[in-house]
Amino acid sequence: MLELDKDNFEAEVLQYTEKPVFVDFWGDKCEICKELMPGVHGLEEKYGDKIKFASLNISTARRLAIAQRVLGLPTMIIYKNGEKLATITPDKISTLDDVENFIKETYDTL
Question: What pTM does this model have?
Fold first, then answer.
């Protein structure tokens, strides 16, 4: 999974046009984020041919997260051609199945 930071976010997410980009916004103090992370990495193996997977630790990029309207963790956003296509917020994420369903539903609408 590609590690994002404030220096590469624009090039790797907003300017990337080959396929949709899934971004996992997480933080050092977010236990749910850390619990889900191995499974989310596994989803990259399953869907990586269709979607580019990346993660951003907001502990080192708070302004960037705020600019993307990430108000709670975990938040996952799928971008396409630099635009937000879909967002899943903490109130909708409790299991890895929630994340996978979010990916499937979003990809099916493309």
Answer: 0.96
